[in-house]
Amino acid sequence: MSKFLRSFVFVIIAFSFLLAACGTSATPTPTSAPANTQAPAATSAPAMPASTATPTPLAPGSITLNGSGSTFQAPAESEYAFAFPLVDPAVVINYQPTGSGAGIKAISDGTVDFAGSDAVPTADQYTAGKDLQMYPFLAGATVLTYNIPELDPKGPALILDGNTLVGIYNATITKWNDPAIAKLNPQIASKLPAKQITVVHRSDGSGTTSIFSAALTSFSTTWTAGSGTTINWPADKAGNGVGGNGSSGVAAAVQNTPESIGYVEYSYATSNKLPFSQMVNKAGQTVTASADSTASAMNDFANSFTPQLTNTIVNGSGAGSWPIAGYTYIIIHQTSMTDCVKASKLVEYINWILTNSVATARAKALGYVPLTSAVQQLALATLGKVTCNGQPVMTH
Amino acid sequence: MKKISVPQKNHWLARFQRSTHYGDIPWSALIIIASFLVLALVIAIGWMLWQQSADTRAQFGWSFILPTSNSVWDPLKGVYQSWTFIYGTLITSLFAIIFAIPISVGIAVFLAELCPEPLRLPLGWMIELLAAIPSVVYGLWGIFVFLPNVVVPVGQGLAAAFGQIPLLNTFFIGPIPLSGSSRLAAAMILTIMIVPTITAISRDVLLAIPNTQREAAMGMGSTRWEMIWQVLLPYGLSGILGAIILGLGRALGETMAVTMVIGNSLEATNSLLKPGSTMASLLANQFKEAVSQLHTDAMIEIGLTLFVITLILNLIARFLVWQVARRTPQEARA
Questions:
Q1: Is residue B311 part of a domain?
Q2: Does residue A30 have a cis peptide bond before it, meaning omega lies within 30 degrees of 0?
């Protein structure tokens, strides 16, 4: 009996050690990260427009802004996380790419200071989050990469239009030499093969799918699968669809499957040198995906923002507008933040992302499209209305 | 010297020192902790999965997991039936095991009985090395090398051979996609991944069989083939079955490599040659960006289903091992 008791005591002791070990390992970054950012900040901070919002300077690395969400904006966020502490050494940015859905949940639950999302929250999510405010800060185009061995890689690119694309993804257009495709491509019509098209799509829930399916919905009423981050693809039902995990999965599937087509982000296609198609837009012009054509799409919809600053920018009517594009957002609590020092740093961070030329240049280098000035002004005006404990956060 | 205080005889520290002197109690305490941790972990995971899938269980009931010919998984319309994925997991694992058993038992017999001595060690190392390759590497290699060069021809052959035969054409109706992404690809990648596990353990089981068994068989005039087939394999059967169970466990839960090669279709097709999804690959694909709370709950219920199926299959397999182990002494070990 006493032997059992003694071993029981050991169990307790061992568990308490275990718990102690867990306790120390659970809070790693805030203490160790500042040490690294401190050194470069001290030398380069004077050259930058330093923050003067707080009278007494805060210790370097003393404020950590935690964010999580969209994987699409993660490369930009990590660039910002590197660059922003050079501007304001007091701040450490910590962004976890957990997915848009998880990000929206995290900001609603209050476990992060800001969230990233490509998806627009549903009415229920707005209710649960109370005072969620979206800030568009970058846009991205989605392009169609294809693999048709019969075509000359250096020759003219494939041209598609909205209805044809819907037809392909609905599996009503199943061969490359379909009259609808041939009509759009007079130069290469003779080379288009009479072979079955394999349709590649994202298998994981994705903001890219969200943008792409919103575009398909806008192109034609024959697209009935709806729009969202996860779609039940009609092409799968027809038996010629394949799902790839992530942009790399889609790219690999297209690359390995002759006569296939798939959609990826413009930034991914350019950085991996994938061939992608041109599109005939709503105005009847043939356009290619670029920063300019995406900016044109942004301008088409500059006046149709919701109060939460969300917007769809697919199938714009401008002559130069790329028809498949979308915003990516940062989400914050607009009125219910209680830590005013943190709130001011968060607003300062978003302000920097929106306006600083270094920040936009870095994002542009990654293949994102910075906001046009009309959209930027709209976002800044809303940012000026952020309050903390009833007081406006932005003072200048 | 007097300064060093020796604890009194019945002081707690003295009792502590005496009790730990031989290490029995700390050792048994460690074992108790370890075994309770395992139990607690299983219960905690099961409880969490049960708790958080309450909404979908209430809304869809048994229709969520029951077999249907046209099961629907549509997050946008809020309709969730998971039979396609249960089927995908079971069929890929089943075929992986069917492919893997002859290969790995064959290799194990070769390594344990027939292999020339200088080859034995390097071959053994290779097998163990294969078991240590990360699954994402298998997936990558699968996409770029294995699928186009092996799976597509095999799939086309299977479709040509069995695609027209009634009953069998349920599983082998073609054509296989040109990229090779299909349930067959997943089954074959899984085969490659579980062969090292089954081989390594089966070889150790065969090596552990006492030499007297071999000598007795030879002494009675049996050939080498008869010795292996009628004496060694029945003798080691329970151990080999145990190895197969381990392989099956890996096949059921494998996520990354399968996600990369299975084609990730949500459609309710039955053919091995069509793209599909397993429970694990669906979780990997959709959990992160679930569109609604119900979608998340449905994913968690899939996790629960996978958990229960793995548990049931393991129990059945354990029962099988126990049956074999009980039967063997009378027939082979006597």
A1: yes
A2: no
Q: Count other Cβ atoms within 10 Å, centred on residue B62.
A: 7
Angstrom distance (rounded) from CA A329 to CA A132: 12
| Structural domain contains residue B312 | yes
Q: Do A204 and B285 lie within an 8 Å CB cutoff?
A: yes
Those of residues 171-200 in A touching chain B at CB distance below 8 A are 198
Instruction: Report the candidate in B51, B74, B71, B49 with the shortest Cα–Cα distance to residue B62.
Output: B71
Measured distance between the N- and C-terminal CA atoms of chain A, rounded to whole angstroms: 74
d(CA A21, CA A38): 28
Chain A residue numbers with beta carbons less than 8 Å from the beta carbon of B295 are: 230
Looking at the structure of chain B, the number of domains it has is 1
Q: Which fold has domain A141-300?
A: D-Maltodextrin-Binding Protein; domain 2 (3.40.190)
Give the number of other Cβ atoms within 10 Å of residue A234's Cβ.
Answer: 18
Helix (H, G, I), strand (E, B) or coil at B273: coil
Structure token digits, residue B239: 């151990």
**Residue span of the structural domain in which B191 resides:** 24-333
A199 vs chain B: nearest CA distance in angstroms?
11
pTM, rounded to two decimals: 0.76
The alpha carbon of residue B294 and the mean position of all alpha carbons in its chain are separated, in whole angstroms, by 30
The pairing of beta strand A114-117 with beta strand A91-96:
unpaired
Per-residue pLDDT of chain A (396 residues; tens, 9 = 90+): 455 556 655 555 555 555 454 444 433 334 333 444 344 444 343 434 444 444 567 888 889 999 998 888 888 999 999 999 999 999 999 998 887 878 888 898 889 999 998 888 888 888 888 889 999 999 999 999 999 999 988 888 999 999 999 999 999 999 999 999 999 999 898 889 999 999 999 988 888 898 999 999 999 999 998 888 888 899 888 888 888 888 888 998 898 888 999 999 888 888 888 999 999 999 999 999 999 999 999 999 988 899 889 998 999 999 999 999 999 999 999 998 889 999 999 999 999 999 999 999 989 888 899 999 989 999 999 999 999 888 888 765
Write down the domain spans for chain A: 63-138+326-392, 141-300
- Token couple for A243: 């799902």
CATH 3.90.550.10 for domain A63-138+326-392? no
- Is B4 a member of any domain? no
The verdict on residue B132 lying in a domain is yes
CB-nearest partner of A198 from B178, B264, B288: B178
Torsion of CA A251, A253, A255, A261, to 10 degrees: -80
